[in-house]
């Protein structure tokens, strides 16, 4: 099997290469799976890509929204986590299927139908979305280093740049081992939260009842600590479904060797890749559900005023804030808070791997350029640490709570780029997997997948546009004035108009591109 560090013969100028071959060419089709294995052994052979995708659904950006939602509204928002996870399974299934059947990742498939100008625009927008997720990883990793080893925060931020050395090491071991490392880190995160939640003795029946949405789930009237159920639900949805995962899955689903002349082999790959994805995303659902249950059962109601990672760490160390005598006894030894910081560090390192691979996918797909993984990681990480460093320096003279709140706001405000980029990955994905011309009669979306897909995609786009004003308000202040709120409304309107205009441009070019591809096939 080839490793990520092997070179591919391409035009090269310095460290930049021309790339217009298979997606992630160094690992594309590099893992063979014999056809005569039984179900479980075959499933194990296909397992791995789903874990890399699931990481994006349990990254540091998800933590505060789920825990705070639980503390404020009990188990009410459990249903939102479930719905988000089911939508994620549907979208990731379509992304993986696109890659396996068409032999193109999502970026390549879109670029094949659009002009170079639009390709560059979409590439820049997607890169900004990737960097926005990187900000949460920088903050999560830096805070974990600060909490575990008492490294000053500004130094810890710079140290996160050196995770490029971890990436360099991983490029030498082979993709299958990278998958195994990611799975191990996911298990660390899962086991930490299982341990802490079990100790808290939650109301399991109440959590199960919370899986069924009610009229209160999306209510905008009840407000707790400045949050309504609707804003809490939007926060969970926004932190869960992210565009870069669709690009990543459409690429790494092609790492298994496939005989595309054998329709049954393609079907087998789609089936087992879907199993892998759904199993790993189920783990992600449990992690997010456990985070919300922590908010309900671990802490006393309203006890945690500081919902940042610092505040949660301190709360797990404080016997006054915990709701259960067993937790109080364990907290005295610092076990709960230390495990929390370890899980936070594991989450950040997982995202290092997936974020870098996704960046390579979109760069190669949209603009046909490629740089070494270590160089791309170094560049994007250095860009991502800039706003974090500015935030830390500007709040250095303020109280700890104010500094923590500012850093937490930075994570939340960075999500606006995800809201901007999400429609441009979801809609093309749905259109192309609905197409018999693209997917063939056997692999195009079935009627129920098509219906659920359109409902999910349109709902997510609506919620992102609807929540844009609140996202913009977050840039001004936690307690905005009437003038700031009005200005945020105007800015949000302009952003939404730009999103819709760019979306129309994209859809028109996709339609015209489909016609060109059909005409070229007829000519042949």
From TrEMBL:
Domain of life where this protein originates: Bacteria
Q: Which UniProt keywords apply?
A: Cell membrane, Ion transport, Membrane, Symport, Transmembrane, Transmembrane helix, Transport
Which InterPro entries does the UniProt entry name for this protein?
A: NRAMP_fam
Q: Name one GO cellular component term.
A: plasma membrane
Segments traversing the membrane: 73-96, 117-136, 142-168, 180-198, 230-248, 281-299, 326-346, 378-396, 416-435, 447-466, 486-508
Asked if Transport is a keyword of the record, the answer is yes
Q: Does the keyword Ion transport apply?
A: yes
Q: Tell me, what is one Gene Ontology molecular-function annotation carried by this entry?
A: cadmium ion transmembrane transporter activity
Quote the function comment for this protein: H(+)-stimulated, divalent metal cation uptake system.
Enumerate the PANTHER family for this protein: NATURAL RESISTANCE-ASSOCIATED MACROPHAGE PROTEIN 2, SOLUTE CARRIER PROTEIN FAMILY 11 MEMBER
Could you identify this protein by its name?
Answer: Divalent metal cation transporter MntH
The gene from which this protein is expressed is mntH
């Amino acid at each position: 099997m080839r490793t990520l560090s092997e070179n591919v013969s391409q035009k090269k100028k310095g460290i930049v290469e021309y790339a217009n071959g298979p997606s992630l060419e160094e690992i594309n089709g590099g893992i063979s799976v014999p056809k005569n294995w039984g179900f479980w052994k075959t499933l194990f052979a296909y397992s791995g890509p789903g874990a890399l995708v699931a990481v994006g659904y349990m990254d540091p950006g998800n933590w505060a929204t789920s825990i705070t939602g639980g503390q404020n509204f009990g188990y009410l928002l459990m249903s939102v986590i479930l719905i988000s996870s089911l939508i994620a399974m549907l979208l990731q299934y379509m992304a993986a299927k696109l890659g396996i059947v068409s032999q193109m990742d999502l970026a390549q498939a879109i670029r094949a139908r659009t002009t170079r100008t639009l390709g560059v625009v979409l590439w820049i927008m997607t890169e900004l979305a990737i960097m926005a997720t990187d900000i949460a990883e920088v903050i999560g990793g830096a805070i974990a280093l600060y909490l575990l080893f008492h490294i000053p925060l500004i130094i810890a931020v710079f140290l996160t740049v050196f995770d490029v050395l971890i990436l360099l090491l991983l490029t030498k071991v082979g993709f299958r081992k990278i998958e195994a490392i990611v799975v191990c880190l996911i298990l660390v995160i899962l086991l930490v939260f299982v341990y802490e939640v079990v100790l808290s003795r939650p109301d399991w029946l109440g959590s199960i009842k919370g899986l069924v949405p009610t009229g209160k789930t999306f209510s905008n009237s009840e407000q707790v600590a400045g949050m309504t159920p609707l804003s809490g639900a939007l926060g969970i949805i926004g932190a869960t479904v992210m565009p870069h995962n669709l690009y990543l899955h459409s690429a790494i689903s092609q790492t298994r060797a496939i005989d595309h002349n054998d329709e049954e082999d393609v079907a087998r790959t789609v089936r087992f890749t879907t199993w892998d994805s759904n199993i790993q995303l189920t783990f992600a659902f449990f992690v997010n559900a456990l985070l919300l249950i922590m908010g309900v059962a671990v802490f006393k109601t309203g006890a945690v005023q500081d919902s940042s990672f610092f505040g949660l760490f301190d709360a797990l160390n404080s016997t006054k804030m915990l709701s259960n005598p067993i937790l109080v006894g364990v907290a005295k030894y610092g076990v709960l808070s230390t495990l929390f910081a370890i899980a936070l560090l594991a989450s950040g390192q997982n995202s290092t791997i997936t974020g870098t691979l996704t960046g390579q996918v979109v760069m190669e797909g949209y603009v046909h350029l490629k740089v070494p993984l270590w160089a791309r990681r170094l560049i994007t990480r250095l860009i991502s640490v800039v706003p974090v460093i500015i935030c830390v320096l500007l709040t250095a003279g303020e109280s700890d709570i104010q500094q923590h709140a500012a850093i937490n706001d930075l994570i939340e405000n960075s999500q606006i780029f995800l809201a901007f980029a999400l429609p441009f990955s979801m809609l093309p994905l749905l259109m192309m997997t609905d197409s018999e011309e693209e997917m063939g009669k056997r692999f195009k979306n079935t009627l129920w997948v098509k219906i659920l897909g359109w409902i999910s995609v349109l709902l997510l786009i609506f919620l992102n546009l609807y929540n844009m004003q609140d996202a913009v308000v977050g840039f001004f202040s936690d307690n905005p004035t009437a003038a700031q709120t009005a200005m945020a409304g105007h800015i949000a309107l302009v952003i939404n108009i730009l999103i819709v205009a760019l979306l129309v441009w994209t859809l028109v070019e996709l339609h015209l591109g489909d016609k060109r591809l059909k005409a070229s096939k007829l000519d042949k």
